[in-house]
């Protein structure tokens, strides 16, 4: 696609870069010497008095777009590291591996290259898959980087291939999902916005020229590689083979998530067990951090800065999750009876 003389999206990119710089971050590129290069925003001056925090974006955005609004709330407390995942921003690989565990291995090596030995992390949507894998890898003996606390946002880590066939997801065809999640037309981008936001303006009123500008600037590179990332999520994925994290873990989900329904959040909470808290953000969808950012920021501060669990209240599983549990209980070893999860009346993206 040809680049435009003026791009509103590129203008916002400039603003976001400025926001990152004002938050004390600089651009850094790490060559992993195996055909893989990872771009990451890192502290200009790392403070030994602050812990290190890694922020991992999802498929719908690069590091700039996902985290610019969050930085002012976290930079006073942490040395922030904000990478572009492979095939986003200036990160890429010539290697054929597309699984989230490979993304995680690359980020572990990047952190090691920056002399980070202990960190906490926040993973948004696809970034949550990567973050979960990082946390699991850090539990292995001899791991160079230790993950201390984990925040997983709207990431269906405990999804399985059969969920697609059984109608758990809004889309039951993997190729269709890949086309929606990596949109190449204004119509596809409108469709993605409809799935992502719980409340949105009439999407037909958004000018196609603005959507085309976003696609040209953000979605025109590495199209098939990004779609391969989507395809790899479900490839040979079995709950019984997913490690159970031992780190304190906060799971945040939008009440009306149409990308990964809430029942998958309950499933992840049960899989991890008592180390996890599930917070459901009322009246939001997959992009809860866009719809209710203040509550999202408060949850991050409570869990990562104050080192406290989120406000606890009873939240029963949905009826659909109960049915799914009855079918799967014997497969993943989980107890189909209800467990207490953490919720919040304070509502808390993609």
UniProtKB/TrEMBL annotation:
GO MF, any single term: catalytic activity
Bias-annotated ranges (Basic and acidic residues): 319-338
Pfam families assigned to the protein according to its UniProt record, in alphabetical order: Abhydrolase_6
Amino acid composition bias (Low complexity), ranges on this chain: 339-350
All residue ranges annotated as the AB hydrolase-1 domain in the record: 53-296
SUPFAM superfamilies recorded: alpha/beta-Hydrolases
Domain of life: Eukaryota
Region of interest: Disordered: 311-350
Protein name in the entry: Pimeloyl-[acyl-carrier protein] methyl ester esterase
Source organism (scientific name): Rhodamnia argentea
This protein's encoding gene: LOC115749829
